[in-house]
Amino acid sequence: MTAGTLVAWRKEPGDAVRRGDIIAEVESDKADVEVEIFMNGVLEKILVEPGEKVPVGTPLATIRLDPGEVEPAPAPAASAAMPAAVPPPMPRAHAGAPAEGRAPISPAARQLAAELHVDLATVTGTGPDGRIQRRDVLAAAEAQRAVAAPTPEAAPRDKQTRMRQAIAAAMMRSAREIPHFHLASTIDMGAATAWLAEENARRKIADRLLSGVLLIKATALALREVPELNASWIDERVMLHESVHTGIAISLPGGGLVAPALHDADRQSLGDLMTNLRDLVMRARAGSLRSSEMSDPTMTITSLGEEGAEAVYGLIYPPQVALAGFGRLHARPMSIGGQVVSRPVVVATLAADHRVADGHRGSRFLAAVEHLLQTPEKL
Amino acid sequence: MNNDEIREVVLRLLSQVAPEADMAVIKPDVRLRDQIDIDSMDALNFLISIDAELHVEIAEADYPKLTTLDNIVAYLAGKLTVDG
Amino acid sequence: MTTMTYREALRSAMRDALERDPRVFLMGEDVGLYGGAFAVSHGLIEEFGPERVRDTPLSESTFVGAGIGAALNGMRPIVEVMTVNFSMLAMDQVLNNAATLRYMSGGQFHVPLVVRMATGGGRQLGAQHSHSLEGWYAHIPGIRVLAPATVADARGMLLAALEQLDPVFIFEHATLYPMEGDIDEQAGAADIDHAAVRRAGKDVTLVTYGGSLGKTLEAAATLAEEGIEAEVIDLRTLRPLDMATVLESVARTHHAVIIDEAWRTGSLAAEVSAQIMERAFNELDWPVQRVCAAEVPAPYAKHMEDATLPQAAQIVRAVQEMFA
Amino acid sequence: MSARTARDATPPVEREHALALLEAMLRIRRFEEKCAELYQAGKIRGFLHLYIGEEAVAVGAMQAIATDDAVVSTYREHGHALVRGVPAERLMAELFGKANGCSRGRGGSMHFFDAERRFYGGYAIVGGGLPIAVGLALADKMRGDARVTACFFGEGAAAEGEFHEALNLAVLWRLPVLFLCENNLYAMGTALERSESETSIAEKAESYRLTAESIDGMDVLAVEAATRRAVEAVRSGNGPYFLEFRTYRFRGHSMADPELYRQKAEVEEWKQRDPIAAFETRLRAAGVLDDGDMARVEHAVASFVDAAVAAAEAGPWEPVEDLLTYLTSETP
């Protein structure tokens, strides 16, 4: 009953009122109620006229108390003194509505994927309506390991097919999901090869450098200038990486490929890079790479060596967003200062993810690589 | 060390960098890189192992002379007799 | 250890209590001369006399209310309501008096009352004699609800109930009375705060109680032949629910099926499922499944009644679907 | 009407006892009037069922009930609790919902409890208390305690199954229950003759082979005499006894009752037999009461009620953190 309408007065101003008298009738949504008086006195002034609707608690009239009558206790101000009832804490429901278009994922699968560093985008669900379940995440993690490091003890043929499947899965996903664009530019390697020959002459054979380390160091340093290429695409968002771990594509005897990471390639000296590269290649071929080296290259370099093609246009390894490729070192006629001369060159290519970068930024990267290779002594 | 011993060492070291290759079928006078799958890294590791075992310092400039089994053995034989 | 039936185990507990504690007495329809509708109290009136084994008129509200009054006044009554189907007539006394007097009086009174009743269907007794309403009682704060599923629990949980200072309602599935099982005759009060893992397993957690335990174990055996290891949890206490045991199991298996003979909507199975969702959400690799009774009054014809009740085959199918 | 009506005119009463009865009734009357005022002022909330008009039943009956006997009441319980001796401060505090209330603020007007005084509470479900009373008496009988359980209820309960089950079981097992029916003619808005085929509650009781009397509930002395007879019979082990007190409530069923179901004239007619005014007149006529006595009683009762209100105002709210306490014996 939040409001009431005054129906009629039983007393007039000036009438005496005694305890227990009914002085008025009020109508509420539920019933008519008689207003009783609890003290003796005289009705002074009527404040609410018949027919008027007023909220509960509105004074209806003023009464002059007889001498000696006690003032009635005022009604409590709302429920000031009443302790507010603390509602029992409701467990916070985990909203987590899956973004539409993405395959439904069981909570346990999501949790396992987080633990095993599996990018859910790389997982295909086998549950009802394509729901991803734990077994799918386990399979993806297994495949991810297979792509990275075939376990030596596995039977070669079996290992081979499993590896091929894993590479196929990764490449299929790369082709299907990553909007590639490719750029190429021919880099004059004259300064670099001259400096290298001179440098190696001074170094004992065990310390000699291969041209590949120059390319790796140049690439790593160039990534500092175009950082969005040194990133991963996870859960529909680009995640930039502070450190530069360049993955080196290493072909394995009898086919197969791994791309373990050279950690902080941008900060290593050429000598260290050379030593680490040799170690990486030997362990990759022996199948004893550490899992940490497997799962965290931030960008990958592929080089086909002296026997390879002039240029390589590769596919990016998800979840990375870029791949640098270097063709074989070969001589090419170039016009320098108006004269045509023969120069040692390498065709550098960039495959990049159009969700993250565009041609303009890609070109800046290749230009940086080329520029850095003109001053090999600074690498 | 006579030529046969040098050849035997060369083949052993070669098999370390190319374990899957079958040394028995290597033709001595054909470019090694056309017979087995080795890249510049493997080649470098091979030369480093030769230096470690035979203490023969091979200059980068001599790389082009070392393309087949025969000319590798000949080159080393020449080096070894000179350095004794 | 000896072998005895579920009803004999209940009788042995009541006999020990009547012997040991003068405050204990049994009251209910036909518990005396008739020996109990399910022959549980057979022979007790001859041993303890009509004062302590009292046949009552068919006045469920008043003899349950009288049980409450006697408990308020220092006795330790055991009231047998023949079946849960008749207990609806006493629900006002249960809800508004037994469960509420301690709280409503600000802690001035205890109501140490034990009420036993048969429950469940599966014996072609038709719609009015086949209810499973444990969930209605387990909804009420202020009382305990127990569902002994084994012969040992039938004795142990009744003795434990008699030690409680608050009302305890014990539901005995009618098909269990003739069931034989091993029991330590001298065993005292059993734990009534925890569920029990009746079968360990790593692939799925099957949660059930009372009369459905047998079918659930049967389903687990079938699943084992297909290489699926099911863990079977017998809740034993329906209020308070021992969710810790359930959640720990689900954290390992990531799959849960709850088997409950009550109707699905608003069932105890719904409560267990909700708590698993709320407290082990990240462990779930599959939505929690429930196998409950079809939402119809129990039909008389056998094939029809079988179609309404949860069966082992349904449990197996629910699990197979998860691992298809 | 085969049920025996009151056998003889009530005996003369000596002065001290008469004044005690008068003050007891006035205490109820003024307490209830203050409740109406505090309800209108918003201090008391929820449901409030006042006992104004029926004071003679509680006061008269309670004279015969020993302190060690048990009392079971209904939601119209203020009078029963007051006369039983539950401190008015604790009752008013309970009506305010305060923690120093007789049920710690948990019960409210319909659920007063006092374990020490064996006051087993008000019951809001009509007839809900009768089985409890049967159980209390069953325990006494089984232990051989010569105690009585007095069970108050309204004539409305006669329509509930529990009334018939309880009377039958009490007689069947010869239990020491004193059934005290306050027949105020109306079950909320339904007059007795509109709900019962047999309107004589006492005759209903007799059908269970129960000794029953129908007494004028407006005459405190008649109520007292009948209750003494009944308690003596029950305590001697003859089984239960049934008293129907014909009485009337001058106020609505509860505070929001527009009283459309009864005529104003009928209320006024019963008010002429106000149990307190009638008793006052009688005592004055018998020369045992004068204006001085009345003034002293009124003053004593006024301070009695004001003390109760002061205690309620001063009482603390129960901390919300205690919400779960007293739910079971394990949550102390």
How would you describe what is shown here?
Chain A has 379 residues and is an alpha+beta fold. Chain A has helices at 107-115, 134-148, 156-177, 190-202, 211-225, 270-286, 291-295, 359-373; strands at residues 3-9, 16-17, 22-27, 32-36, 41-46, 53-55, 61-65, 180-188, 231-234, 237-240, 246-248, 250-251, 257-258, 261-262, 299-303, 322-326, 330-336, 339-353. In chain A, the strands form five sheets. In chain A, strands 8, 11, 14, 15, 16, 17 and 18 form a seven-stranded mixed sheet that branches. A four-stranded antiparallel sheet of chain A has the order 4-3-1-6, with no helix packed on it. In chain A, strands 2-5-7 form a three-stranded antiparallel sheet, with no helix packed on it. In chain A, a hairpin with a 2-residue loop joins strand 9 and strand 10 (237-240). The longest helix of chain A has 22 residues, at 156-177. Chain B has helices at residues 3-17, 32-35, 40-54, 69-83. The longest helix of chain B is centred in the N-terminal third of the chain and has 15 residues, at 3-17. With 324 residues, chain C is α/β, with parallel strands linked by helices. Chain C folds into two domains: 2-183, 3-Layer(aba) Sandwich (Rossmann fold), CATH 3.40.50.970; 196-322, 3-Layer(aba) Sandwich (Rossmann fold). A seven-stranded mixed sheet of chain C has the order 3-2-4-5-7-6-12, sandwiched between helices. Chain D has 332 residues and is an alpha/beta fold. Chain D has one domain (26-288, 296-313): 3-Layer(aba) Sandwich (Rossmann fold). Chain D has eleven helices and eight strands. Chain D has helices at residues 15-40, 55-62, 78-84, 88-96, 129-143, 161-172, 201-206, 220-235, 264-271, 275-285, 291-314, and strands at 4-5, 70-72, 149-154, 177-183, 186-187, 190-191, 211-216, 241-246. In chain D, strand 7, helix 8 (220-235) and strand 8 form a beta-alpha-beta unit. The interface between C and D is large, with 44 and 46 residues.
Rg from alpha-carbon coordinates of chain B? 12 Å
Query: What structural class should be given to the helix and strand makeup of chain D?
Result: alpha/beta
How many distinct helices of chain D?
A: 11
Structural class of chain B, by secondary structure, is mainly alpha
Proportion of beta-strand residues of chain D = 5-15%
Question: Whole-Å distance between the termini of chain D?
Answer: 53 Å
Biggest interface found: C-D, 44 and 46 residues
CATH top-level class of chain B: Mainly Alpha
User: How helical, in percent, are the residues of chain B?
Assistant: 55-70%
Overall strand count of chain D = 8
The figure for the number of domains of chain D is 1
